[in-house]
Amino acid sequence: MIVLTPFVVTPPDSVVTENDYRAFQLGGTLQDLGKMRPRLISLQSDASSVTTQAGSVNGEVERLKELYQDVRVKELVTEVEVAHNVEDIRFALDPRLKGHGAFDPDSKPPVILVNPASGLNAANIAHSLIHALQIAEGYPTIQRGIFPDKRQDVVVALSNSVLDIPLVVALIERGFSPSEYLEPTLEKIEEVFSSRPEKNELSILRFHYEAAIYIRLEYEGAYLSREKRAYFDALFGAKSPIGYRLGEKMLKIIRRSSPYSARGNAIALVRLLEFLNTTTIGRDVSDFRQHLYTPCIDIVRRKYVY
Ligand SMILES: [Zn+2]
Questions:
Q1: What is the pLDDT of residues 278-290, one digit of tens each?
Q2: Is residue 144 part of a domain?
Q3: Phi then psi for 15, rounded to 5 degrees?
Q4: Ligand 1 centroid to 18 CA: how many Å?
Q5: How far is the CA of 51 from the centre of ligand 1 (A)?
Q6: Mean predicted confidence (pLDDT) in 133-150
Q7: Is pLDDT larger for residue 270 or for residue 69?
Q8: Ligand 1 center from residue 91 Cα (angstroms)
C-alpha cells in the first residue's frame, strides 16, 4: 500500500547520513530538521491504494512512486527493512534538504529523505538505502553537534566520502550508475569554482571540506568519462590547489587502509582526521591550528574502533 500520511520528523539527535555534495555550501545542516515538515510517504510493497496528503506536489510524489516500483529499489527497501528490523520505512520529500538525499535511522519508522529538486532518481534513492544498510552493519557515522562550528560540516563530509567508497561498489553491483546523481553535482561544483576569484583567501576548514569532496572524484568519479574526470581533476587543481594537495595525500592514506568493512572504514576515517589534525599544508594556510578534530577522533575511536 502506498499511503501518504502527515508525519513530522522528530529532530534526530544522533545520526543522519546525508548524500551530501552540498554544492559547497558550508553551513546549514540537517539540524534544522525539527522545524521542517516534510511531505511524508509511507511505502509498503503489497497493495495499491493511494491517499494523498493536501498540499503535496503530485508530479514529485508520482515520480517517487515510480522509482519505488523499480525492482532494484524494491529489493533494497526490503533489505533495509530486514536489516533495521522494521515493517516498513518511509520516504519523505523534503525541498529544504541541502543534499540530494539522507537517511534518518532515529525516526520510527526510519526515513529516507529525498530532495525533490535534485534527488528523484533511482541511483540517489539507492544511495540513501545503502547508507541505511551500512548503519545497520555498524559503519561509522558522525553524531550531531560534536562541533558548534563548521568543523561539523568537514567531519560529516569526510565521513560520507569514506562511507561512499564501499557504497559505490554496492551501487554498481546492484546495477545503479553513480553518474546519475554525480553529473548534476559536478555542474554545481563547476559553478562554484567558476565564480571564485583568482586570489582568494579561504579558511583552513574550507580546504579541509574541499579535500573531503575531492576524494569522491576518485571513487564515484571512476564511472565518469575519462575526459570529464580529467577536466574536474584539473579544475580542482586550479581552483582549490590546497584542497587538491590535501586530497591527494588523503587518497594515499585511504589506499593504505581497508575501508570496505565497518571497522576498517572507521579506522580510515580516524587516520584521515589525524592527518588533518597535524598537517600544516606546507605552511600555506595562515589559520592552521593543531588538534582541530580531536573530540571527533575520540568519539569515533571509542564507538567504532576499540
Ligand atoms: Zn553518501
A1: 988 766 666 777 8
A2: no
A3: -120, 130
A4: 6
A5: 31
A6: 92
A7: 270
A8: 17
pLDDT digits (tens, 9 = 90+) for 74-130: 999 999 999 999 988 888 888 777 778 888 877 777 888 888 888 899 999 999 999
Amino acid (one-letter) located at 246: L
Residues 57 and 160 in one domain: no
For the beta sheet containing 90-93, the strands, ordered from the edge strand earlier in sequence to the opposite edge, are 17-19, 101-104, 111-114, 90-93, 39-43, 2-4, 50-51
Handedness of CA 89, 93, 97, 100 (dihedral sign): positive
CA of 237 to the centre of ligand 1 (A): 23
Within a domain: residue 142? Answer: no
Assess if residue 233 is contained within a domain. Answer: yes
Look at residues 101, 136, 171 and tell me which one is the last residue of a structural domain: 136
Average per-residue pLDDT for the chain: 80
Instruction: For residues 204 and 156, state if they share a domain.
Output: yes
Q: Do residue 156 and residue 94 come from a single domain?
A: no
Is residue 141 situated within a structural domain?
A: no
Nearest to 181 by CA among 114, 231, 235: 114
Other residues' Cβ atoms within 10 Å of the Cβ of residue 24: 17
**Is residue 45 domain-shared with residue 96, that is, in the same domain?**
yes
- For the chain, how many structural domains are there in total? 2
Task: Tell me the average pLDDT across 211-233.
Answer: 92
Domain that residue 124 falls in: 2-136
